[in-house]
Each structure stands twice: as structure tokens, then as C-alpha cells.
Automatic annotation (TrEMBL):
Record's keyword terms, sorted: 4Fe-4S, Iron, Iron-sulfur, Metal-binding, Methyltransferase, S-adenosyl-L-methionine, Transferase
CDD domains reported for this sequence: Radical_SAM
Record-annotated Radical SAM core domain positions: 34-259
Molecular function GO terms recorded: 4 iron, 4 sulfur cluster binding; metal ion binding; methyltransferase activity
Protein name as annotated: 23S rRNA (Adenine2503-C2)-methyltransferase
Length: 272
């Protein structure tokens, strides 16, 4: 029996993410994810040319770039589902730099509507990365997933040259304002036995050391049927987080929305 003076415990259920496919006029499909935090993740291409072995989104290769109308279609479909995106991220299927002219127009259009847009890229081609760093985006995340050239070449086989990418960052980041530098981050998808060794992480820490404004985001992979890739167990991720913090790196673990089952693009279209 609960007395009236005692507080009644309230159990709050976490709002789930929603992942949905978007049918294009020519019969192709792309995918979007609405995160319960208010962020809508949309795709910039149908398929992807990069061929990263852990990624479900690019298994079928690149079909084509999306148009500005098709980027906006994904936002409109989310709203038709009763969702209210407060910010957008071009982090779904495709490499935004391979469709940069359209992505630039989309960022500018959304900015006029006071809807901030961020993007996630492998950084290829490097000439377009240099341009993208200066776009009026809300943030740019570089998906590196490696601390060494050999691991980067294996995990992002059609990405930019790893050393040349860091040379560009070493040269271009100091030219940005401190506020804009803080909008640049590094994505690191932890893959057991691939890029989670102490040596690999220490190499990455040395690359990051000259850039204290950069935040390193430790991500975990969403299981995909027939894929051999898995993230290490949570205790290993915690140890990696501690090691990097001790090295002076600004590092974050995946938030609770990214850890949900519907926390990543690619697998819905793959199932279809």
C-alpha cells in the first residue's frame, strides 16, 4: 500500500527511433532515420560508390545522385508521418561530397528556413572536402574508422589517401574560426579485431593531438545479416574511452538513440 505522502515512481519509456524507406520516381528507394532526439538523418545518394566492407548501404554500389527535390522529399515524408525534425543530417546512404553541388543548395535552402543541416563524409575527394569545411553547415563529421593508413585502406577502400587527408586537416583547420573548428568531428566505428587495438587507437590519438577542438565519436555497428563485423563488448568500449581521455582526446560514446536497433541507415533498403 502506498501512502499519499510517498512519491509514486514513474517509469518513462524512451521514444523509439523510426526508420523508413522513401520511394523515388524511378523505382529506386533510399532510407531515412528519425532519431527521437529530433534529428532526421537523410540520404544523399541512391547507393554508394565507396564499398566499405562493413556498410550495408553500399552493398549494391552507386545507382545515382539524388536531386534537391529528392532530398526535400525525405523531409516532407517524415513530416507526413507526424514527425517534426528540428535538425537534419546528411548521414544516410551515400557520400555527400560526391553530390556536393546539390548538397550545398540543400544546406542553403534549409538555412533560410532556420533548419540546421550537418553532414557525414569520408572526405573524398579531398578538393571537395576543403570546400565542404567552409559551407554554412551545422557540423561536419569525418568517418575515418582508423588510426593507421593500412587499416583505413582496408575499411574505407575507396576513400581518400589517409595521410593526405590529415595533411589537409593540419593545413585547413587552423584557418577556420575556433567556433567552426568545434563543428568538425571524427567518427570512429569500433569493430572488434579490426580497429580496436591499443596501437591503432594510440596512432589516432597522435593525429588528433594538434587539434584539441575536434571531438572523437566512438560508434557501434548495427548488426547486419551475413556480416562478420561486430563491435567490441561494452566493457572494452569503456576501456577505450578511458584510454583516449587519458591521452587528452575529447571523446564521446554513442548516445542512446544511436544505440537503438533502428539507429542506423542501410539495413531497411537492404531487406527490400
Amino acid at each position: 500500500m502506498v501512502r499519499h505522502s510517498e512519491p509514486i515512481p514513474c517509469v518513462m519509456e524512451e521514444t523509439p527511433n523510426q526508420r523508413f524507406a522513401v520511394a523515388l520516381a524511378d523505382g529506386l528507394r533510399v532510407e531515412a532515420v528519425w532519431y527521437a532526439s529530433g534529428t532526421l538523418c537523410i540520404s544523399s545518394q541512391a547507393g554508394c560508390a565507396l564499398g566499405c566492407p562493413f556498410c550495408a548501404s553500399g552493398r549494391g554500389g552507386l545507382r545515382r545522385n539524388l536531386t534537391l527535390a529528392e532530398l526535400e522529399q525525405q523531409v516532407e515524408q517524415a513530416r507526413n508521418l507526424g514527425l517534426a525534425p528540428r535538425r537534419l543530417t546528411l548521414s544516410g546512404i551515400g557520400e555527400p561530397l560526391h553530390n556536393l553541388a546539390t548538397v550545398r543548395r540543400f544546406i542553403e535552402t534549409c538555412r533560410a528556413r532556420q533548419l540546421p543541416v550537418s553532414l557525414t563524409t569520408t572526405g573524398t575527394p579531398l578538393a571537395k572536402l576543403r570546400e565542404a569545411l567552409r559551407l554554412p553547415h551545422n557540423g561536419l563529421m569525418l568517418s575515418l574508422h582508423a588510426g593507421s593508413t593500412a587499416t583505413h585502406r582496408r575499411l574505407v577502400p575507396r576513400g581518400p589517401d589517409y595521410d593526405a587527408l590529415w595533411e589537409l586537416l593540419d593545413r585547413e583547420l587552423p584557418r577556420l574560426s575556433r567556433r567552426n573548428r568545434r563543428r568538425i568531428g571524427i567518427n570512429y566505428l569500433l569493430l572488434a579485431g579490426e580497429n580496436d587495438s591499443a596501437e591503432e587507437l594510440d596512432r589516432l590519438a597522435r593525429r588528433l593531438a594538434p587539434h584539441p577542438e575536434l571531438t572523437l565519436h566512438l560508434l557501434v555497428c548495427n548488426p547486419v545479416p551475413d556480416s562478420p563485423f561486430r563491435s567490441p563488448p561494452q566493457e572494452s568500449i569503456d576501456a577505450i574511452h578511458t584510454r583516449l581521455r587519458a591521452a587528452g582526446i575529447q571523446v564521446r560514446r554513442a548516445n542512446r538513440w544511436r544505440r537503438q536497433q533502428e539507429g542506423g541507415c542501410g539495413t531497411l533498403v537492404l531487406r527490400h
